[in-house]
């Protein structure tokens, strides 16, 4: 049998006996088999569950120096595949574990569920950061332990008094008993008996008082560590704020000196602003408020790993025989009038509906203007530093009247790119359109610095454009801690897209980092090409001082798991010293053999172009010692260009044409649909004070449901029963065959329920 050590006890070898204590203690150890790869399969590893963290090692001896991996249970999903398997998933990390028997598997599942429930409770009580805190100073300890010592001393005095009371009370009772045995008048005997009863009652009362004092001391001792953590946390917050203000003052002074010493800077900044009108970070001076934690890139680091040279197609036809056959292309294919690339240049938003679909329904083109409410930003932000964004009680003043589910649906604004990709005969050409689609989803964020509403657990959002645009979309909030949304899109034009996105975010005082976790899947019906990619990190700058602006940074790797084609896209972060165009995106599309076919270039807020590679060669070596590749390409073709914003967009939260319609009331939607959310509807109408009251009511209602669910889980686990927890309505958790991750996949039933108008399974969340 597999060895397990609850609380640090039990057998240590493979033949160790059953656990010596129930799996509810602080530490649980034992051997499990962990899936590594297809070559080695399951390997035996030593697992340790402690403080809400599950860590594993190759051997028990490694516990002293090397940890092979750790997963946080407070944000993890626990699932069981069969009688012996356990699947743990946390964002992009998944552990496939196997026990030797069903009994051992159940012990581990029970221990994991208890540890997860305890970790969630600790995090909700704001004590989840205690592991990262520094030990309190000696003065703090003395401040906290001094009253405890005094209480202990008083308790000892009370115990001494209790012993004396018991001793003298017993002597008094003996004396009264002797008096009762004497021959006294009847009245005297009754009085002595009454005194004896009162003495007994007095002793019982004094014992109860001593026990109550002892319970009070135990409670004070148990809370002393929490007081110590809270005090240390407050002091760290104050120090962090002081450092932030000091950095702001230094940067302000350095900027003033730079402006006085560089008279040509003002004109240069003005020219940049004029060429990029409406850009949130067009002037370089706006982005110079970055603190030391932000990663800067100079001009050489920002330079791509390749150089593109545009060739003359006619000249290439004459000299094509001299080029390397391994890297050359055929320019004739590039200049066909009826090619998919050529048609992409002539497309427009109105033409994207197609001949075979019904005319577009007339939808709203404006919403009420955003009110101009004043707000003391610092009074709210000073209490939020270092916290998870989803746990900060934000007023609607920081929001836009759309939920996160609607923002996720907004990625489909340029769905016609996927409609064109269906027509591509070459998988590498199709990859170009998929890459352009992945970049287009960021175009709406350039001005959108407001925060979408956090969806309630079980909240849904549908976008049924099957008759107009050929697709229908469904989103559902499938988890609250961590917040996760599942999305499924079906298009009758030949593609299906699905994803589960978990948003990890941190507020760092001056900027906000938003890290989407989870993979996006796209499959084309006719070819079977299956594409997978992940989103990059979004950063909102100048949270406290200056004008808010947003940037995207990181890399996207798009993989076609059928043909093994790849596209590497790089989102260049903004740099004050770079000469590149802001918000630049570059990439290369290559086949399974690594041969490059297309170069992608553009910006994530304006357009993306594609250039066919004719010839590739190695260029000169850069100053960092890296050899750059030189691609000789044909003239670029524009695959995607951003639609212009509607008139008066600056007063309508900078919503695009599609975004203006997302919250438009519709009939026959589910009662959990985001359009029916009252606080969001009040905010859109400009009634922000009422929206804030309604938002607090909904959040408190959700917290009450969560507390009830946690209590039921703890009760079930203590009784040894299985507790399923929250189950999504329209999605189910499965292990993805491509990525191996546990992901929510649409199981069907929503659109059938809509046709019947049978919403009996929907909870009352609003």
UniProtKB/TrEMBL annotation:
Biased composition (Polar residues): 268-282, 341-352
Similarity comment: Belongs to the OSBP family.
Keywords for this protein: Coiled coil, Lipid transport, Lipid-binding, Membrane, Phosphoprotein, Transport
Region: Disordered, residue numbers: 1-23, 122-146, 261-294, 311-366
Coiled coil regions, renumbered to chain: 231-258
CDD domains: PH_OSBP_ORP4 (cd13284)
Principal localisation: membrane
Chain ranges of the PH domain: 25-117
InterPro entries in alphabetical order: OSBP_sf, Oxysterol-bd, Oxysterol-bd_CS, PH-like_dom_sf, PH_domain
Pfam assignment, any one: Oxysterol_BP
Recorded GO MF terms: cholesterol binding
An example Gene Ontology biological process: lipid transport
Superkingdom, taxonomy of origin: Eukaryota
Subcellular location(s) per record: Membrane
Database matches in SMART domains: PH
Protein name (database record): Oxysterol-binding protein
Topological category with respect to the lipid bilayer: Peripheral membrane protein
GO CC annotations, alphabetized: cytosol; perinuclear endoplasmic reticulum; plasma membrane
């Amino acid at each position: 049998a597999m060895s397990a050590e609850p609380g640090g006890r039990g057998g240590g070898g493979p033949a160790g006996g059953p656990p010596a204590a129930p799996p509810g203690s602080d530490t649980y150890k034992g051997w499990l088999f962990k899936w590594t790869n297809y070559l080695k399969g399951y390997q035996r590893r030593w697992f340790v569950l402690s403080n809400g963290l599950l860590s594993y090692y190759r051997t028990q001896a490694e516990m002293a120096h090397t940890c092979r991996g750790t997963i946080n249970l407070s944000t993890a999903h626990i699932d069981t595949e069969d009688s012996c398997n356990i699947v743990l998933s946390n964002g992009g990390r998944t552990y496939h574990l196997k026990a030797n028997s069903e009994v051992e598997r159940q012990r581990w599942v029970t221990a994991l569920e208890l540890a997860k429930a305890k970790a969630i409770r600790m995090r909700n009580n704001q004590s989840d950061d205690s592991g990262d805190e520094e030990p309190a100073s000696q003065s703090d300890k003395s401040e906290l332990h001094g009253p405890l010592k005094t209480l202990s001393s008083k308790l000892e005095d009370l115990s001494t008094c209790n012993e004396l009371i018991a001793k003298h009370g017993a002597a008094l009772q003996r004396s009264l008993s002797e008096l009762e045995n004497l021959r006294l008048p009847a009245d005297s005997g009754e009085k002595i008996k009454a005194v004896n009863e009162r003495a007994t009652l007095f002793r019982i009362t004094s014992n109860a008082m001593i026990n109550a004092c002892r319970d009070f001391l135990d409670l004070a001792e148990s809370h002393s560590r929490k007081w110590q953590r809270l005090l240390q946390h407050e002091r760290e917050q104050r120090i962090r704020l002081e450092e932030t203000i000091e950095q702001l003052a230094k940067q302000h002074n350095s900027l003033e000196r730079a402006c006085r010493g560089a008279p040509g800077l003002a004109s240069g900044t003005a020219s940049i602003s004029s060429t990029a009108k409406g850009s949130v970070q067009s002037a370089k001076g706006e982005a110079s408020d970055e603190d030391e934690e932000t990663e800067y890139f100079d001009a050489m680091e920002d330079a791509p790993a390749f150089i593109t040279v545009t060739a003359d197609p006619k000249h290439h036809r004459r000299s094509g025989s001299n080029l390397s056959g391994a890297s050359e292309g055929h320019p004739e294919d590039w200049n066909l009038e009826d090619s998919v690339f050529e048609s992409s240049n002539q497309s427009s938003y109105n033409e994207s509906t197609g001949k075979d679909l019904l005319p577009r329904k007339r939808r709203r083109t404006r919403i009420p203007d955003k009110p101009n409410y004043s707000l003391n930003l610092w009074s709210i932000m000073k209490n939020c530093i270092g916290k998870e964004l989803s746990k900060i009680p934000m007023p609607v003043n920081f929001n836009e009247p759309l939920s996160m589910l609607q923002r996720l649906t907004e990625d489909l604004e340029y769905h016609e790119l996927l409609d064109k990709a269906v027509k591509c005969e070459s998988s590498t050409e199709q990859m170009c359109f998929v890459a352009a689609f992945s970049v287009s989803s960021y175009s709406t964020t350039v001005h959108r610095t407001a925060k979408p509403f956090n969806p309630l657990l079980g909240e849904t959002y549908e976008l049924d454009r099957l008759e107009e645009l050929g697709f229908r979309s469904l989103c559902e909030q499938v988890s609250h801690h961590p917040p996760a949304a599942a999305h499924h899109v079906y298009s009758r034009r030949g593609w299906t897209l699905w994803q589960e996105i978990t948003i990890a975010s941190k507020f760092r005082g001056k900027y906000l980092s938003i890290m989407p976790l989870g993979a996006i899947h796209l499959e084309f019906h006719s070819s079977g090409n299956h594409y997978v990619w992940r989103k990059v990190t979004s950063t909102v700058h100048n949270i406290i001082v200056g004008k808010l602006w947003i940037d995207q940074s990181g890399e996207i790797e798009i993989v076609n798991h059928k043909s093994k084609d790849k596209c590497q896209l790089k989102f260049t972060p903004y740099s004050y010293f770079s000469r590149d165009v802001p918000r630049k995106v570059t990439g290369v599309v290559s086949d399974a053999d690594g041969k490059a076919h297309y170069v992608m270039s553009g910006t994530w807020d304006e357009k993306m172009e594609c250039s066919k590679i004719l010839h590739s060669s190695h260029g000169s070596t850069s100053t960092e010692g890296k050899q750059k590749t030189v691609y000789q390409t044909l003239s670029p073709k524009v695959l995607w260009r951003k639609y212009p914003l509607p008139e008066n967009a600056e007063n309508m939260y900078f919503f695009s044409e599609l975004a203006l319609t997302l919250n438009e009331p519709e009939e026959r939607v589910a009662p959990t649909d985001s359009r029916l959310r009252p606080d969001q509807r009040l905010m859109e109408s400009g009634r922000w004070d009422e929206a804030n009251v309604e938002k607090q009511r909904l959040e408190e209602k959700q917290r009450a449901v969560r507390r009830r669910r946690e209590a039921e889980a703890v009760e079930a686990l203590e009784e040894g029963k299985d507790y399923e927890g929250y189950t999504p309505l329209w999605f189910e958790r499965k292990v993805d065959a491509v990525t191996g991750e546990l992901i929510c996949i649409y199981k069907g039933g929503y659109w059938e329920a809509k046709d019947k108008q049978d919403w009996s399974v929907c909870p009352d969340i609003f």
